[in-house]
Amino acid sequence: MNKEKILEVKNLKQHFQTGRKSVVKAVDGISFDIYRGETFGLVGESGCGKSTTGRTIIRLYDATSGEVNFNGIDVHGRKSKKDLKQFNRQMQMIFQDPYASLNPRMTVKEIILEGIQIHGLINNESEKTKRVEELLDTVGLNKEHATRYPHEFSGGQRQRIGIARALAVDPEFIIADEPISALDVSIQAQVVNLMKELQKEHGLTYLFIAHDLSMVKYISDRIAVMYFGRIVELADSDELYENPLHPYTKSLLSAIPLPDPDFERNRKRTVYDPAQHDTENAEFREVKPGHWVLCTEEEYKTYQVK
Length: 306
Ligand SMILES: Nc1ncnc2c1ncn2[C@@H]1O[C@H](COP(=O)(O)OP(=O)(O)OP(=O)(O)O)[C@@H](O)[C@H]1O
Known about the structure:
The protein is an alpha/beta fold. 36% of the residues lie in helices and 25% in strands. It contains 11 helices and 12 strands.
């Protein structure tokens, strides 16, 4: 794999002030790198801070503290208008609910062209039409769809429109925030396969956010597991599945439904109990090359021999 870093997240925090004295530490000091061309999965249960992480990286929120370096530029630091404009084009987002994220009053053509207009990428009308048709074809829709409105489409088709909109500005990096969670299981694989094809063709890098590990394994090169605002484990996908170390990762893995009824009947579900875990003294440590776990010194020693 190409080891050129496209994104570096360093000790990123996103704390929301929810009352005069109450603060939600949605993201509480996370660090990871993403390499150009890879798919980096970010997994954890609802409320663990995955969406907030994605939204902070793309600057929908200002970070409370920490750094997000994209192509070597700190996107939350001081930067020129030109750098910001470039960043806004190079990083795009696909959302969980494609219906809520598509303006119901705009045609598909208008939706896809929005970014192209903002960035002044194409000025000629017939070129614009041609580009929209090309994008619709790329995502498996057809040119007759251009004049229709979002409500005329199925969930899977809407997600394809969302993907076409993201691709329109020729990005390098796409944050996909649970892009398939709202879709029927039969449609999920189609959208994931489309994303994989597009990645190959366009050399895209993905941050793929999901709440369970089943589909993420299939698409991700590496996976980070998040729990209560922190990353508890990070490793290559295969390594994470074959050799999970953190008890929370184990509990997530034990919750993946499998199509084998015998296995289902006999398998043990493990439930993570943070009370039995010394999170206070835990640090993010590299147990073996590329495999990181949030653990204490003692746990680190036992993990190393596994
Ligand atoms: N704008 C906000 N203001 C206050 N609290 C917020 C805000 N956004 C998120 N939170 C809180 O931060 C925590 C993390 O939320 P976040 O949506 O990032 O989690 P998530 O893992 O993506 O969950 P889900 O899969 O349900 O979206 C939650 O406790 C949530 O209530």
